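Still learning folds. Look over my entry:

…
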Amino acid sequence: MRVIEPSFEIIGAVDSAAIMRELELIGRVCYKSEDRITGDSANRFLASILKRGHESVIEHRAITVKLICDRGVSHELVRHRIASFSQESTRYCNYSGDKFGNELTFVKPFFWADDLEKYALWLEAMRQTEANYLKLLDMGATPEEARAVLPNSLKTEIVMTMNLREWRHFFKLRAAPQAHPQMREIVTPLLAYMKEILPVIFADL
């Protein structure tokens, strides 16, 4: 059994300057002001239209992210409608196989880091889950049958693609103080990274 921390990875290269230039060109079509494009006008233009609430322009570009999180968090992720998802399948993945190290992997619940008694109880529950899952497979159950005992803490990998406007909406919901703590654990650093690579698009969040 393994216990890991959640993480994220941007899939594909993100050329921030090229994205901003392209979005400026697209946005200026609305105002027929393409003649005002200069070498450094993109940031000012996009900041201006976003401030006015003209966010449809940024729907023309998307970013893809792979998140490693627990399945409880993934159940909330897939509720976002304007997005594409590809997720690790517990129907087809047999975790008793060599490529999974013949074990289950769980995401550590960080909120019990200072409560050893609760963490120990969770850890024992995960050990028992792994034992039950592997025993079911040994008894002839298929992976899609044995997954019935798998908990929310099971690690999953999910790839999300959303346009930049939907990413803004996503962060407003999932990085908010009232969001689930484990959602905020992974989304807050992701938002910080997005602010670094595309500050005009995300800096106000």
